[in-house]
Write a structure and sequence with these properties.
binds adenosine-5'-triphosphate; four-stranded antiparallel sheet; ABC transporter transmembrane region fold; binds magnesium ion
Length: 617
Amino acid sequence: MRGGGFGPGAMMRGGIPGVWAQEKRDLTTPVPVLLRRLGAVLEDRKPIIWRALLAVALASALQMVPPYMTRIIVDEVIPRESRNLLPLILVALALVHAFRYGLLYISRVAIASVSQHLVYAMARVLFEHIQRLSLRFFEKQGTGEIISRATSDINILQQAMQGGVIQSAVGLLSMVAYAIVLLALDWKLALIVLTSVPLLVVASHVTSEMLRVRYIKVQERMSGVNAVLAENITGVRVAKAFARESEQSARFTDRNRANRDANMSTATVQAISGPLIQQVGVICTGLVLWVGAVRVGEGTMTIGTLVAFVSYMVTFFAPIEDLIRVNATIQQALASAERVFEFLDERPDIAEKPGAFDLGGDDTVHGHVRLEDVWFRYVPDKAVLRGVSIDAPPGTVVAVVGQTGSGKTSLVNLIPRFYDVERGRVTIDGRDVRDLTIASLRATIAVVLQETFLFSGTIRENIRYGRLDATDEEVEQAAREAHADGFILALPGGFDGSIGEAGVMLSRGQRQRLALARAILRDPRILVLDEATSDVDTETEILIQRALERVMRGRTVFVIAHRLSTIRSADLICVMSDGVIVERGTHDELLARAGAYRQLYEAQFQTVGSAPTPVAV
Ligand SMILES: Nc1ncnc2c1ncn2[C@@H]1O[C@H](COP(=O)(O)OP(=O)(O)OP(=O)(O)O)[C@@H](O)[C@H]1O
Ligand SMILES: [Mg+2]
C-alpha cells in the first residue's frame, strides 16, 4: 500500500499534500538505489575501501598457490622421489601464507575503519536531520521507533560491513578467476562445476528476497519492543503509582514475543537455504570425483591434476558459501538501510521559503503580532481552531483563557510556527510568519512551554540554553529576576549543581522558574507563555508571579493565564471555547458583561457567595 490512499482520513485529506501524517508504507526500495545511497555516505572513505578491496583480492589470489604446490608434490615429487624440491615448496608455502595474513590484516583494519565510519556518519546525518523535522513527525513516530532506527538499524549496517560484505564482493570476483583456472586445468570437468552456477544464483536470489522481507519485519518488531521500553522508563512513576507493573510487563512480553517470532522466521529460512545451496556443491564434487576417477583410470588425467582441481573447486565454492553466510546479514542491513533512509527522506512540513525574509535583530523588530481568521487542525476531521483573530500591538499583553482542550496551546503554537495554519495567517510586523526565515522568527520569540523540559546537566547550562553566549553574570542575573536564585543557591553545587536527567531532582515550581530564567536571558521581543496550571504553594506562586511581571515588561506577550493577577493586568483577554474566541475585552469589561468570562472567573477564582478574592496577589 505504497503512499497510503486508504483509511478513513484519506478522503478528507485532499488538497493539502504533505500536511497529514503519512501512513506506514511498505519498504521496497530497489537494492541498487540503496547501495548507491550507502556509497554516498562513504564517499570520502573511497581510498580506504579500495585499499581493503585490493588487499582482499591479492590475498585470495595467493590462495591459488597451495593447490598448485600439491599438484607438484603428487605428480613430480612422489613418483620421481625428487625430495630436494620439498624444502623449496615448504619455504614457498610459508612465505605465501605469511604474505596472505599480512594482507588480511591490512584489509581487516581498513574494513573496521570504514564500517565504524559508516555508523558515525549515518548517526550524525540522521540526528541532524531528525532535529530539523517538524513536530508532526514526532507525533507520528514514537520515541522507541526513532531510537531503534538511530541505534539498532545503524549498528546492523556496521555489522554487515564488518561481517564480510567486502570479502564476499571480492569473493564473487575471484570466482571468475577460479573459473578460468578450472577451465585451464580441465575444461570438461570445469563445465560440470559451472553448470551449478545458475542453480546457485537462482537459489540465493529467492532466499535473499525471503530474508529481506522477514528482516524488515524483525526491525519493526524491534522498534515495538523499544517503544514499550521507552514509554515505561518515562512513565515509571505512573506505573508504580497505579501498581501496574505486571500489566506493563505483559505488554512488553507481547512485543518481545512478536520480536522473537519474527526472528525465528528468518532463522528458519536461513536454516533451510544454507544446506540446500551447499547440497549443490556437494553433488558437484561427487560428479567431478566420479568423472575424474574414470579419467585417471583411462590415463587421460594425472592424479595431481585431479587433486589440484578438487582443491580449486573447493575454493571456487567458498565465496558462495561465504555469501550464503553473510547473505542474511546483508539482507538485514538492506532492510535497516531502507528504514534509516525512510527517515532521511522525511521533509519537515514547516519549511523555509526560498528567499525568506530575515526579521533582523531586536532593534528592527517591533513585535506586532496578528492572527487573522486562523483555522487549524491536527487531524483531518477535527478543527481545533476555527476562525481566530487577535491583534496584539507591540508591548501589549494578551491573555488567553478558557477550558482545558479549548485550543489555547494550539493557538500560541502557531506564532513561532511549530505548526502552520490551515487557513488565514499569522503575521509579525505585517509579515506572514511563513515568509520569514525560521531562525529569525524563533530568535524573536521566546516560548515558555506548559510542561517545562530541562536537559541533564547543570543549572547554569540549562538557563544558558536561552542564549548560548551569555556570560555567567548574565545567567545569574536572569536567575535572580526569575526569583530562582534562592533555591538554586540552596542546592548542592549551586549553579553548577547537576539536576539529573530531565530535571527529575527539581520540583515543578522550581523547574518553571528555571524556564522563566531561560526566557529572560533570551530577552525576546515577543514572549509566549503557556502557564502551567498553578499547583504550587502560595509562596512560590507569588515568586513566580513577580518573575512573570518582570519578564513581561516591554514585550508583546501571549500568555495562557491561570493566575488572576496575570489576567487582570492584561491589555486584552480572549476567552476561548471549542476553538473559537467567544469573548474579548479587559477584565473589567468582561466581568461587567456577565458572560463566559464571568462564569469562568466565578468558577475558578471566587468562592461562591463572598466577594472576589484573588488567589495570588
Ligand atoms: N498533537 C496533537 N495531535 C492531535 N490533537 C491534539 C494535539 N494536541 C492537542 N490536540 C487536541 O487539540 C485540542 C486543543 O488542545 P490544546 O492543547 O490547544 O488545549 P488547551 O486549551 O491548551 O488545553 P489545556 O488548558 O489543557 O492546556 C484538544 O482537543 C486536543 O485533544
Ligand atoms: Mg494547553
